From TrEMBL:
Keyword match Signal: yes
Signal peptide as annotated in the record: 1-25
Domain Peptidase M4: 248-371
Keywords, alphabetical: Hydrolase, Metal-binding, Metalloprotease, Protease, Signal, Zinc
Protein name: Zn-dependent metalloprotease
Domain FTP: 99-142
One GO MF term attached to the UniProt entry: metalloendopeptidase activity
Occurrences of domain Peptidase M4 C-terminal (ranges): 374-529
Gene3D superfamilies to which the protein is assigned, alphabetical: 3.10.170.10, 3.10.450.490, Neutral Protease Domain 2
Protein family according to the UniProt entry: Belongs to the peptidase M4 family.
Keyword Metal-binding: yes
Amino acid sequence: MKYRRAVGGIAALATVVSGSALALAAPSYAGTMSGPSFLPKKPDSTIKVLEGSDGDVTGIAAKGSAIKLPNGSSESPKTAARTHLQNFAGKLGVDPAQMRTVKAQKVDGGNTVRMQQYINGVPVVAGELVASLDKQNNLEALLGKTAKGSVQAPKKTKLFSVGASRAVARSYVAKKAEVSAAKLEVKSEGRWIYNPSLLGAPGAPVNRETQKFQVNTPDHAVDYTVFVDSGFHTVALAVSNNHAALKRDICDLNNKDAGDLEGAVCDGSTNKYTRREGQAKSGIADVDKVYDNLGVVSKWYASYAGLDVSAFIGGDSKTLKASTRTCLSQLQPGCPLANAFWSDGIQQMVYGDGVTGLDVTGHELTHGVTSHTSALYYAYQSGAINESISDTMGELIDLAANPGKATSDQGWLIGEDEKPASPDLPAPLRSMKDPTKFDQPDRLTSSMWAADAQFRDSGGVHTNSGPGNKTAYLLTQGDTFNGYTIRGVGLAKAFKIYWTAENLMTSGTDYKDLFNVLPLSCRKNIGKTGTYITEDDCAQVDKAVRATELYKDPANAAPVATPYCTAGNVKTSYVQTFDTTPSDWSMAGGAGLTKADLGFDYVNTGKDALGLFTQPAYSPYPAVTSSTATSNQKTIPAGSWLRIDYATLFSLYQPSSGTTAKLEYDDGSGIWRNANTLPGSVNPGSWTKHDSHGWASAKYNLLTLAGKKVKFRISASGLSSDGQASVMDVDNFKIYTCS
C-alpha cells in the first residue's frame, strides 16, 4: 500500500508502544458523572477500594481500624509497608516486584512509606505508592497509581543517543525560557518510563522510554526537568522547578540589578547578610518584614506539623535564606522584580521590592516543603494541586496572624497585601472563597476550567488551583455550596490535615486522588495527641470534597459520554469494527489499521482500529500531510443514528497546532459536507489539538439523510508545528436505530 512506505519511520519506532500488553484501557463511556464507588469490587470486611468516576482504582483504605500485620509481627515501617503491599497488590492491580522503597517519613500518628515503580529496572514517572501506617505499622491506606503493561524498546539502532536527546532538551528549554542554549547546563539522569495518564497529561496512555535531564542556567533562574522520548526524539514532558522561606539569613540587594539568580544568592559573600538569626531589626522595612514572616511560617510548621522548616528545606546550612528588594534583569526587564518565589536551585526565597506579604511567604516556602515531600509535578492537575497547597498553607497562616481578616473582604484572598506590581500582575491574585471572581473554576465541572492546550501555564496550574482552593476554604471556614452545608474545622485542624496530605500524595496526584487523600488525612489525625480532630470534623471534609466535585472529570477536555440510545434497544444496519482491512472503505495517505499497519495498539474493542496520521518530514522519511478513509455508499434507514466508539485526535505528548480531523458525508450530491452540521450531534468535530475531549465517542443524528445513499469520509490533514506526529483514532463505526 502507498501509505505503508510513507509511515515507515513512525512504524519502525512504534514498536515501543505496540504489543497486546499496551491495549488502551479507557472505556468508551469514560467521563460519566455518576461519582465514585465507595465499595470494593468484591466484598471485603477489612478494606474499601477507592475509585474515581471512571472506575480507575486510586488506592485502598482500611474500614474502621487499621489492618494489622500478620501474626502481630513488629517490623520497621519500610518492611511493614512491603508486607502490606504484598497482601493487597491484587486489589490495586500492582506488581509488588516492580515497587522499590524510597523513604519513610514520620508523621503524627505513625509513618508514611513512599515506593517507586520500576519496569525492567527503569523508574516510572509518577508511578508511586504511599503506605500510611499507624504507630504499630498497621495499614491505614495504600494510595497512588502505577503504569500497567510493559515497555518494548525499539532496536538500539533506532534509539536516539543520549547526546542527541540532550540536544533536544537543551533546545526546548532555550526556546521555552527565551535564553541562549549556550547558557544552559544539561545533566543526564538516565532512563525513565513516561506514561501521560499518570499525570493526567495529553498524549496516548502508553508506556514510553525517555531520557531524563535537568536543564538550567548556572544560577538556576531557568531550571527545568525534561523527559525526551528515546524513540520519537521529541520532548515528552518538561516542567519548571522554580515556583512563582528556625534559622534565617536575609540579604538586601537595595534594588540594584543582580543580573541573574547567581548574583542574588544570600551567602554572606556574593551578598552580605543584612540581618541574621537573633539580630536586632535592620531598619529596612522589607528585610524586617521578611525576617518576621519567615519566623511566623516556621512557627506554624513547627507547632502544627512538628516540622523544623529550616532543617527540612534549608540545604546544607539548614537555614532559611532570602534576598529582598531584588532586581534580575536576565529574569525580568526593569526594576523592581514584580514577584517573589522559592527557588529549588539556590534553595532560598527571592523577593521583589514590596512583595513581602505573609501569605506570599507562606505560599512560596510551602513550594519548598512540597518539593521535599510529595514532590508534585508542576504540570496539569498535580501542578494545580501544588499551587493550591501553597495557597492554602499561606492563607491559613495569614488568617491566624490576622484573625480579623477571615470574615472581612480581605479574607481568603491571595496577595491582597501587595501593591500591584504591574497590569499583568495585579493584587490580589486569587480568591479561595470565590475563585470565579478571578476567572478560576470553583469545581471540576466549571466551564472556567483551563485546558491550556499550548502549555502556557504548565497545563493550567494557576487557573485550575481553584477547586482545590475552594475545598480548603469550605473545610476550614465552612459555608453552603453546591447543595452541601459544611461546618468549618478551623485553621489549626486544617493545617494538620493538609500537612498529612503532603505526606500521602504522590508526585502525580490529581483531583480524583485528592478526593480520597483529604478525608484519609483527616481520619489519620483522629485521636492523635494535640490534634483534637473528630469524626465529625472528617465528615465535613467528606462534604467539602464532594461539593467541589473533585471526583469528576474537568468540564473542558474531558471525555464525553455518548450512549447509543437514551431509550429502546439498538438495532444495527451497518457496522465496521476495522478489525481487518475493510473491503468497503478506501484509504489514502497515512491511513491504515492502528496495530497491523501503524504499530499502535489503540483499540476500543476487537483486534484493531482505524488510524489516520500526519507527520512532518522525519529523516529519511518524507512528510505525511494528509490521511483519508472513505466508505462505499450506505443506504440510511429512517430514524438512524451514527456512533463512533473512538473519535480521538491526539499528538504523542504536548498538544500541538496544525492538524485537523473531521467526519464528512456525501449524500449523493457530489458535495462533501462536515458531519458536525447534522442536528443532535455530540462531540462531532472538527477536531484540532485535543478538542476530541480525550478518548471519547462521537454521535450523529442521520434523520435528514433517511433513504439516501451516503458516503462517509474521515480525514486528518495539516502538520504539527513542533515536529510531532498527530493521530486520529477511529473504532467501531456503527449505523443503527433505537427501537
